[in-house]
Here is the input.
Amino acid sequence: MDNPLLDMPGLPSFTRILPEQVEAAIDTLLARNRARIAALAQGAEPPTWENFIEPLEILGDSLERAWSPVGHLNAVMNSEALRAAYNACLPKLSDYATELGQNRALFEGYRAVSAQEHLDATQRQLLANALRDFHLSGVDLPPDQQSRFKAIDRELSRLAAKFSENLLDATNAWSKHIEDEAQLAGLPESARALARQTAERRGESGWVLTLDFPSYQPVMTYADDAALRREVYEAYTTRASEVGPHAGQWDNGAIMEEILALRHEQAQLLGYANYAERSLATKMARSPEEVMGFLAGLAQRVVTPARQELEEVRDFARSLGGAGTLEPWDLAYYSEKLREHRYAITQEELRPYFPISRVLDGLFKLLERLFDIRIREVQGVETWHPDVRFFEIRAGDGDLRGQFYLDPFARPNKRGGAWMDVCVNRLHTATCDQIPCAYLVCNFSPPVGDQPSLLTHTEVLTLFHECGHGLHHLLTQIDYPAVGGISGVPWDAVELPSQFLENWCWERESLDLISGQVASGEPIPDGLYQRMRAARNFQSAMQMARQLEFALFDFRIHLEYDPARGGRIQEILDQVRDQVAPLKPPAFNRFAQGFSHIFGGGYAAGYYSYKWAEVLSADAFSLFEEKGILDTATGRAFRQHILEQGGSRPAMDLYVAFRGREPTIDALLRHSGIAVAA
Here is the structure.
């Protein structure tokens, strides 16, 4: 049987990829790559960019081309067989990556090339990053420590995958079957219809609630039944823990402790005091003190207004006859009631104006105008699910610049959240010309019956966010994967394009492009728009305080880790909440067990990046506020200096090239409705 993972001249053939083919393909590619790398490292000719670096880039890309669809399918079409095949490959890929990072001959080859004078700025940046990464992989360590480093890498890879699996399984395991519609009082019709459709697909009568976000969020926001809100809240916030409805069944507690211990040990092997220091080796922030100072400065600005916002909700809840004590499962419910009272607006009122087809059409027109590109859907391209659509991006002159898949809707066996991931990298050499391709994945409410998918404004923001990441990958003009697209971009700058693009979801000119009433096509009425704008910063201080809670918790558990005391995960989380959280969660809340960004993803000791990049994005958007929201010249400048450059130059240099100066925090505070100090 042909193995589609070994013969992939174009895009992946998803329907032909079988779990039993995965391990064999990876084994073949790893053996092939090892043989070619050994030959390159022992080459008789002095290493040059052309005979050494480019072949290594091509080898790395060939492996990524095969592994990318496997990892992607494991996230969006999870099955027992695919999960087993995926997990069987993780230690092999981890070992291979560590071997390369500790290969002294390769290191010396890179060092020799870096000393050559004819290199351009992009090549020099790639080589500087590579030499740094060799050191971060333990190339300088003695053999016994290298061996330990490799074992840690392998185990961390396994634990991260297990963390994510536990969370997915715990999410899928819980559901609530409801026969009495009175229990659903307050829920909008869109949420009831989804619950009804879920029940029907399970062959059940009535309604079924799940912990998928399109089901969970409406219950917390609209359900009049406080007991139902509490039940769903408890199920959601105890996922993958030792408490709650499935206590101990998929518990991530021990996994988190192991992850923190291993990260700390690995950082110390490299000479860092802790993993927070190690994390910053590849970021814009220069020290843990700078990060903590940045977060503390924001906290100082937002904690008092956040607590004032909470008191407003408490007072309003009392005025409606609510209990004297505002519980966490009450907060979203009464906040929404207060928003309605104060601004006469709800997310549900906006939903009919955002049918997904209109949003996508308007989004593409906006991007075309801002960045001088053309986006068109292409039919007949093989995908992994009927919901998936495929698009191509062309430059204004017609040249093909990139392609992407869009998988918009929630479904069983699909990981929650939203993300962009790499399918194919741009790679351009004398022998290779590869067009970049991306996956854009969301978990929006699917169409129900004959009704098209209608997005909330929050979901529109999510779509724009992931599209920003996608453009960063797809519009790169850097020829080498190691510093093209999002690769080589410091993690605290990688959120710049994504958060930047969200700004257009609030502007009249752009909203008129992306919205239209589902039946009539009419734009959002001016009165509704004004109420929407007025409500933009509703509880913005509480929202920022919540993000600071996540960022401080993440950074502190890595900065303060002590092997003698363990992770102190809940202890530190409680301390952080004492510092910044307006409303304390109940004792059973196990937020950390579901914090996949830092335990299952790439944000460890780096969650602060969202806020760091938000400063950049707000400041960048302020130039459009000066020049015009749809100013093509400014859009082209952003494309040329940010989107096209990837990691080819230091992030601050690229930002200054676009903005003409370094960023200030003023725009972020202004956009959030928080007073700027005089």
Notes: The longest helix spans residues 288-319. The mean pLDDT is 96. The chain has 26 helices and nine strands.
